[in-house]
Structures are given as structure tokens and as C-alpha cells.
Amino acid sequence: MNSAALARLVTVIMPFGKYKGRVIADLPGHYLNWFAREGFPPGELGRLLALMHEIDHNGLTHLLIPMRSSR
Q: Which end of the chain has fewer CB atoms < 10 Å from its terminal CB, N or C?
């Protein structure tokens, strides 16, 4: 995990679905879990969703606080 990927979590907007328009870091855990079960989309979006799922699942959302304050 690198700081650039963490920074992308607080800037990239979810482009589709129930939570369209939300920043990836603000997606609820149950939605991330759904992607983990059903499959992440291809490309950067899928990688970011998978990273956010791991962060959320392991209780590490506090790692994003410095990234949020620098936006």
C-alpha cells in the first residue's frame, strides 16, 4: 500500500451504482463486502475498491484521516 493509493481513495468518486457520487473512502462496508463477494470491476476502480475493502475490513480507516485533511 502506498500513499498515492490512499490519496486516491479520498478523491476518486464512485461512478455508478447505489452510491454513485460518493468518494470511495466513504462507501459503506456492506457495499464493499458485496463487491468482494461478487467481484471487483476491472482497472483502477476495482483496485481501489479492493484496497478500501481491506482497509475497512481490518479496521484501518484511521489511515485515511491525514489524506482527508490534506484535500
A: C
